[in-house]
């Protein structure tokens, strides 16, 4: 059974809704309605941690800077190493966008 076949209809609707967001403000409004502030903070920490791992930072450096548990860092690292490539894809795009916007300023 493929990953898509495993996805529930509800999850597919959620992902389609996210793909319809067009601005940072729309994302903020949607995610603040959808998630608690703690959930948003946790997700932001995970993305920041993934970015730091991809930049070669150590667990010790990440714990100090992000204040996240080593167990969570380990889980994120496993996703980076053996997962579906989501962190690499998105963080690569965000990095490319930031670099191109720096050139335009």
Walk me through the structure.
This protein is mostly helical and 105 residues long. Helix content is 81%, strand content 0%. It contains seven helices and no strands. It has helices at 3-6, 9-20, 24-34, 37-54, 59-66, 70-82, 86-104. Helix 4 crosses helix 6 (70-82). The N and C termini lie far apart (47 Å). The mean pLDDT is 90.
Task: Supply the key terms.
105 residues; mainly alpha
Write the layout of secondary structure elements.
Layout: H1 3-6, H2 9-20, H3 24-34, H4 37-54, H5 59-66, H6 70-82, H7 86-104
Helix pairs in contact: 4-6
Supply Rg: 16 Å
How much of the sequence lies in strands comes to under 5%
Helical proportion, percent range: over 70%
Question: Biggest sheet, open or closed, and with what strands and sense?
Answer: none
Total count of helical runs of at least 4 residues:
7
Task: Briefly characterize the structure.
The chain has 105 residues and is an all-alpha fold.
